[in-house]
Amino acid sequence: MSSRSHSRRRRRCDPVRRVAYTALLATETRGAYANLALSEQLRMSALTGRDAAFATELVDGTARGTGSWDRIITAAGGRPASTLQPGVRVVLRMACHQILQMRVPTHAAVGTSVDLAAHVIGERVTGLVNAVARKISLHGLPEWAEIIAPDDPVEQLAIATLHPRWIVTEYAELLDGDESLDSENLAAGCAAGSGEVRRALMADNIAATPTLVVRPGLATVDELLAQGASACEYSRFGGHRAGNPREVPAVADGRAGVQDEGSQLVATALADTCDVDGPWVDICAGPGGKAALLAGLAAEHHRFFAAGELHPHRARLVANALAPIPGDHAVLVADGTHPPVRPGVCAAVMTDVPCSGLGALRRRPESRWRERDLDTLVPLQQDLLHHAIALARPGGVIGYVTCSPHHRETTEVVCQALRHEPVEALDTPSLMAGVPDCATGPDGRFVQLWPHRHGTDAMFCAVLRRTS
């Protein structure tokens, strides 16, 4: 037996880290969603409790920091991370997160990374992994940011907060209220090292506590509180509760669900504004969270509710969400740009358009490194809003919603509709009474929620009324 084979046989591979590695490799090579890949691996493994929690943190943090970790691996290894084979990149990214964010002792992080590499790739890469991981441990994350970008405070902030540069720039423009922020002022603001831009970026790195929502008429918030939840600060239908939501009886039997508080707020804002007769419609309903809340509220108002969804598998999710809800409702497999509903008759139309997902980075850790093509998305968003307006009757209301704060997907889309369509903008912030510091857009008539301000996803909402 060779010494190399003997060395490999003696190595012990930590099963927790191997589960995390397998999920992350699927994300790297197949474009899988990190949370779904991990869920699959956890089902196949025997990990529970603290081990499952460690694997979850390792996957989320490694995926969240992908771009920053690759910059550090490149600097520490003396060669672009992109030239390494995918498995080696994944192992070294995991080492970065353990050393720089999880405070795993250096000897443990390096040793387990070398052992993992030996088992999943081969002994031939262990020397490289050992050398690069040890060099990574020589500096903290802020120091690495300064080493990599010594004269660029914007890039330093991007690396240190685990974001691509374009998101740092976009947040700075949005939160400073100046979409033409010049590079000198942007750099000065980032160099300050504190302030709202940094808080917004850091909030993206904090996992959201599960938020529950009751189905109107089927469960109450008091029932959630009795099961250990704490009431939401702004939504009258929600509560926060750590742990597995399926352990809550109301969730298990469909009388409540899981939904971010921001999503609850935009749905109720539309429902509370509707004061004319006619059906309510959600033209982009998948996977069904907002549709379920709207269907329950429509039933309380004795209104017919229709949910349209383009993709059949997502339409089935909508149907499952609506199944326990009383009242008259239907789920249609339909394209929101060609809705099978007669124009000009709807009292309320929800338009939760496909978007970049920039507002849900804390839930989808790898998504910040997968920039969506806004040149393709924005025309679709404009088209969906146009058809939503066409469905509304005079006096009917339209909710335009994105889970993104990006100005091209939000204010620009709505302002174009206001210029060319028979609609007026309602004072949307007033429809969310008690939610502070949420006004945005011309004259402050739209709403932009933020994780660091409101504890919600970064939801945008504009409620419009058809005038003729």
TrEMBL record:
Q: From what organism does this protein derive?
A: Cutibacterium granulosum
Q: What's a Gene Ontology MF term here?
A: RNA methyltransferase activity
Binding-site positions, S-adenosyl-L-methionine: C284, A285, G286, P287, G288, G289, K290, E309, D335, D352
Q: By its UniProt entry, which Pfam families does this protein fall under?
A: Methyltr_RsmB-F (PF01189), NusB (PF01029)
Where in the numbering of this chain does the SAM-dependent MTase RsmB/NOP-type domain appear? 173-467
So where does this one cross the membrane?
none
**Keywords on record:** Methyltransferase, RNA-binding, S-adenosyl-L-methionine, Transferase
Instruction: Classify the source by domain of life.
Output: Bacteria
Q: Which PANTHER family does the entry link to?
A: NOP2 YEAST -RELATED NOL1/NOP2/FMU SUN DOMAIN-CONTAINING, RIBOSOMAL RNA SMALL SUBUNIT METHYLTRANSFERASE B-RELATED
Q: Which family does it belong to?
A: Belongs to the class I-like SAM-binding methyltransferase superfamily. RsmB/NOP family.
This protein is called Ribosomal RNA small subunit methyltransferase B
SUPFAM superfamilies for the chain: NusB-like (SSF48013), S-adenosyl-L-methionine-dependent methyltransferases (SSF53335)
Question: What EC class does the entry list?
Answer: transferase
The major lineage groups are: Bacteria, Bacillati, Actinomycetota, Actinomycetes, Propionibacteriales
In short, the EC number is 2.1.1.176
